[in-house]
Amino acid sequence: MSQAAIQVPAGGAPSRRRGGIETWSAGRLARVVTMLLVAVIFIVPMVGFVAMAFRSNNGVSAGSGGLLGLGDISWSNVKYSWSQVNGFGPNGGLFTRWMINSLIVAGGGAILAVVAALPAGYAMARLRFRFRRAMLLITLITMVMPNTVLVIPLFLEVNAAGAVGDLWPVAVIMGFFPFGVYLSYIHFMTTMPKELVEAARIDGLSEVSVFLRIGLPISKQAVVLVAFFSFVANWTNFFLPLALLSSDQNHQTVSIGLQQLIGASPLFNPTVAAGLNVKLYMPQLALATFISMLPLLAVFIGAQRFLIRGETVGAVKG
Amino acid sequence: MKPPSGRLGKKCAVAAAVLAALSLVSACGSSSGASSVKQTDSGGAITVWVDPPRVPAAEAFKKAHPEIKVSINQIDGTVGGKGLQQQFAQFNQAGKGWPDAIFFPSNDDIAWASGAQVNYTADLTKLLPDVIKGYSDQVLAPCKIDGQIRCLRNDAAPDVFWYNKKFFQQNGYTVPKTWEQYAALAVRIAKEHPGKFSGFTGDAYAPDRYLWASGCPTNDRLSATEVHIDLNDPKCERAKNLLNQMVSAKAVSTLGIFDADAAKVGKDLVMSPGAAWWGDYLFRQTWKIPAGQMTAVAPLSWQGESTPAAGDEGGGLWGISRHITGKELQNTLTFAKFVATDPAWQVQLSTGLPAYGPDQDAWIQKQEKENYFADNATTFAAMKSAIADVQPNHPYMLYNTGSVWTETMAPALVSGKSVNDAWSSFSRDLVNQAKSMGYTIK
Amino acid sequence: MTTALIDERDTSIEAPTPVRRRKRVSRPSETRGAWTLMSPYVVLLLVGGIIPVGYAIKTALQRSPTPLDPSTGFGGIDSFKTVVTDFRFVDTFQNIFATLVIWLPIMMVGIVGLALLIHASPGRFGSTMRFLYYIPGALAGIANLVLWVYLLNPGQSPIDGFWHAVGVSTIKQAVASPGHLPLILTAMMFFQGVGSWIVVVNGGLNGISEDVLEAASLDGANAWQLAWHVKLPIIRPWIGYAALMNLAYGFQLFLEPQLLDQVASNALTDQWTPTQLGYAFAFSNYNFPAAAAMSLILLVITLGIGLLIVFRSGLFGEEEH
Predict the structure, then answer these.
(1) Which of A51, B12, B162, B311 lies 20 to 30 Å from B174 when distance is taken between CA atoms?
(2) Does the CB of C89 have a partner CB in chain A at under 8 Å?
(3) How far is CA A160 from CA B95, B155, C75, in A?
(4) CA-CA distance, C279 to A3, in Å (whole number)?
């Protein structure tokens, strides 16, 4: 990724860049120290948390392991914690079930989002039609609204269709991803020359064929971006699965599953946990959380190249 | 080339499609509250929902009846949790999905499960008359709603009076007989032995222990839509003053019995009213208080009254679905009978005093073998007799008095306020909750 | 919460071409093709956006049933009255405002300040810091909550010393003591969200032409003046966008208060935020008209914020005119 190429002198005394060595003015020192401090504040809890996933229950309660418990980490702890996490449920294995369900809805939603966003973004970018601007407006507005405000209306709709508890309505709803359409729109606006479209039209191709033959081949980056952001948003969505999937134990996603693990933890609910055959203390909860984040990490690494390349859009989704 | 009307047609077509979809969706929309009950028969397979401590009951049933196909669904057992209501709301709208039998983690659940809107539980008066005969009236009181028996009690959970006999003997204290004596002694012990305490105020059962035992009207159901709530009633006043006295002297812990941190201080509890199940579940298993220390006696009586007065803390309710018939219903009734009466669960595995009368002595015999209490004979006798001391006029309502307590009183006490200070917000919230549920306060 | 992309180019949309002279589109084949291509999106828009809102409106116009009186029927604004006169309604908005008032300023100062610091930091150091600040954002939603349960639980938390210093010994005390919750929520949301927004604002900063900055520094501006007088005004659209997006996010808070209640032994009000109240209407009181009414109220609010963002933030420029 490219950075601002200029050297901005910090602090009162201008420092000169000579052969790569900058002098340490008070301002520069302050800046660096502040940034490092903030970095430490951000990273230390993360390190401690990840380390927690690798620790043992006894180590945690004894407070052993030194700084952030790093001395206590071991693979055997992880194996034990995993046995507890995956042993949850009347016959165990519920956590795996949750992960699979999350993959289904998040992945299905991402695929739907791509299938819908790409042609729609192309159409809004390169075709002229009557409600083009209205559609763009609707997309922008729905894009900046938080996705929880629609959950109860969505529940009412799915309820009326009698499909509460099923996975497919959730995947379909997750396919509605206006931010993806916007990304696709920006992509085609910036990478699809109008002349190319015109030339293809003159050659007699229909609009759909133009898209399929010319637009699609150059849209790899848009595909990856839309899929990535959609998958991340779907995977971390909490309220929608809570409203639509809570009624079926086998259809819950990992985001609401983690809530059940917390509710069954002896840390917060000793009487309920006393009747359970698995013990879910902090290391087990941390491991469950960590594992639930792994698919996001995988997708992030996969999409890395396309994310930091320059031609992407500086817009965000809340 | 399409004529311009094609575009207009397109707009109308889109609008028509949206309208059609909307009306289709609303046509599928159900009417709430089934007046005629739709009953199904799966042919024999049953689904039961149990919270983690009751999973062994379902497993025991599976073992005892291998011919019946049982799916066990484990539900969140948090007392006061709302997840269950949500699921049943969805079932009613969908017209399917109900479990055949369920253990309600919170006794308040029976109010909505039997209420007009959800109306899930079956009337068991004619379905299980023999089982019902084995219950005493007080123990089955939460299930008796408008003349019908809408559930079965799992365990009896009357409050007895627990105290640490070893501590009392060591320090020459006498066991109090009245509530007022209990408060005075608590203050004295707090002064003479700092760190020792005589009760918990931070959990959802605290109002049951103190207010219910006093007869304070928080849950006085007058009819399906009317309730009598008056926290200025003299019976409430005396409970409030008692608590105020003890809290001001730091004689009670502001923790709740279910808090994880309660285990750290559990050993310092010297006396308290508490449910019969405190003995095994809390003292022995969770807090690991050494054997030979704790003992229970009959509940305390209020000054001027001749009989002991106690509250009740939980004791789980089993509900059966109204929406089943035929073989499925038969198997479910077998399940209900098993979990309510069969010694394989009630005596061998359950940690609570069986609500079903004939099982009680066998359970006591088994528990006595543990030889955990300082005076086993008195303790178990007290548990049995306390069932009759539970104060009447306290059915479970659509609002959860314990929740209101943990949301108003408990945090106020934790941050240092007095009972008197927090009482008005507790009272106000209770009334508001009741009203928001649709009750008329009389 | 937020996911961001880095833009090295201008984010404004291409200026309209001269073809716009004619208002009417006269290419039916293009229109047909456009709608064909748009059709999957339109279907999803209907299913995921328009129909739910329409159905919610229809539901909200029904009578508000209570668990004791489940009769329904047309009720007009009865359900809205139920919602607005509910004893928790005003409290939930007060709670939201109490949180926003603390969180938004801190968030914006953090975002802008750190973005400026990063922009002023050359080469590897700046990009490394930006990456490090982004890492907490990887834990989204409930994962963030578990992380904070870890931090908030004295006895296991790495900041145990801090908790002892302020006299907090249990997680219930940390969360449920009066006045604590807005502060805790501020910390949680700051931690989770600031990283992605820094990337966004930093992207905007990187778009500033070098000539402008050269000229200003040649005029004798030091780094502080550069930031305050040159950079800040240029990235105002991004700041406005970030502020409004976070405002909208704050309004729909649900997960954190809901789950913190669980770890604090139910010591928090069950309906602390408006979304929790809507959830309670739907699934505790079975009052779907009231739940729909509540959702519509929140929808109107966030829609208003959304319109502000689209039309007034200056980030989505020319295509709207």
Answers:
(1) B311
(2) no
(3) 11, 39, 19
(4) 46
**Contacts of residue A135 in chain C, CB cutoff 8 Å?**
38
pLDDT averaged over every residue in chain A: 83
Q: Chain C: nearest CA to A82, how far in angstroms?
A: 17
Q: Do B82 and C284 touch (CB under 8 A)?
A: yes
ipTM over 0.90: no
Q: In this structure, is the dihedral angle defined by the CA atoms of residues A230, A235, A239 and A245, taken in order, positive or negative? A: positive
Q: What would the pLDDT profile of B329-387 be if each residue is shown by its tens digit?
A: 999 999 999 999 999 999 998 888 999 999 999 999 998 898 999 999 999 999 999 99
Q: What share of chain A is helix, strand, coil (3-state, %, to 5)?
A: 70, 0, 30
- Going from the C-alpha of C97 to that of each of C83, C128, C252, C273, C274, the distances in angstroms are 19, 35, 12, 10, 11
Question: Which residues make Cβ contacts (< 8 Å) with residue C78, sequence separation at least 6?
Answer: C62, C63, C64, C289
Residue B125: other Cβ atoms inside 10 A: 13
**∠ at Cα C107 (C105, C109), nearest 5°?**
65
The 3 state secondary structure assigned to B182-224 is: HHHHHHHHHHHCCCCECCECCCCCHHHHHHHHHCCCCCEECCC
Which helix (H) or strand (E) segment holds residue B48: the answer is strand B46-50
| Full-model pTM | 0.81
User: Given CB atoms, is C269 within the 8 Å cutoff of chain B?
Assistant: yes
Residue C79 and residue C287: Cα distance in Å, rounded?
9
Q: Cβ of A146 and C251 within 8 Å?
A: yes
DSSP state of C141: T
Per-residue model confidence as pLDDT tens digits over A141-160:
898 888 888 999 999 899 88
Q: Which residues of C touch A162 (CB under 8 A)?
A: none
Q: Which chains border B (3 or more CB–CB pairs < 8 Å)?
A: A, C
CB A114 within 8 A of CB C263: no
